[in-house]
Amino acid sequence: MTEDTSVRDYLRERFFPHMWCPGCGHGIVLNGLVRAVKELGINKNELVMVSGIGCSSRISGYVDFHSLHTVHGRALAFATGVKLSKPGLNVIVPMGDGDALSIGGNHFIHAARRNINITALVMNNRTYGMTGGQCSPMSGVGIKASTAPYASIDNSFDCVELARAAGATFVARTTVAHVNQLSELIKKAIGHNGFSVVEIFSQCPTYFGRKNKLGGAVDMLKAFKEMTVPLGSEKKKGNPALFERGIFVEKELPEYCQAYDQVIARAQKR
Ligand code: SF4
Q1: Spatial CA neighbour of 247 closest among 168, 156, 153
Q2: Could you report the per-residue pLDDT of 151-200, keeping only the tens digit for each?
Q3: Residue 243's domain spans which residues?
Q4: N or C: which end of the chain has fewer CB within 10 A?
Q5: Which protein residue's CA is at the shortest distance from atom 6 of ligand 1?
Q6: Is the whole model's pTM more than 0.90, yes or no?
Q7: 48 and 19 Cβ atoms separated by less than 8 Å
Q8: Is 201 a member of any domain?
Q9: Is residue 132 part of a domain?
Q10: Is 64 inside any structural domain?
């Protein structure tokens, strides 16, 4: 169902001003998300946002959808229950990199494996911002954090490759410095019939930026432009420091709720 509405209708303005630090990238994700939802014309009563814990997860409080603010790392487990009980609803799960890929890493892999029609937005700022800038699984070697004052020795991994290997049927990456692409990818992810993942590089100037002497928010946004290239760019060849942006996986496979309905139908015939 569609409705004619303005972007502000998707916001819970009574909860503003928001809690994010000046220059945090998460507000740009919120902007891209509500614009994507408006352009898709989705009735907000048909949208559910389920989040865990962290600065990124606070998005669920600012959108006027049905929202569940759950426990750290378990948002996808709650979202799976919502989707299975009401498959007609659109379910979106905003997560930070720690929430999605460390504490919630197992849920992430298995939601992808099942291909359940949920959209996961992984807002990767390479730190645990809300709790004071600890190392996350995406921080990487050489990064300073409150738990690594002499620099991390932990390798990070690639969220896109993990999602692809686990079976997600829509996998994309962009940054908050690429706002049009951000909104377009979120739109495509919501419209995809299966588990969709959009990794979004987002800046945390308060901890990640300050501890690693990366300058302010504007400098970090510029860095996102310099460290990423469109998927398939010649510049990427032989340059492991560059990250590609775009759609890495987009394919149709049986969706979990639909497959489950078929099981019920088979059982009822017996
Ligand atoms: S601590 Fe970092 S991630 Fe959290 S709101 Fe502040 S800038 Fe954003």
Answers
A1: 168
A2: 999 999 999 999 999 999 999 999 999 999 999 999 999 999 999 999 99
A3: 7-269
A4: C
A5: 21
A6: yes
A7: no
A8: yes
A9: yes
A10: yes
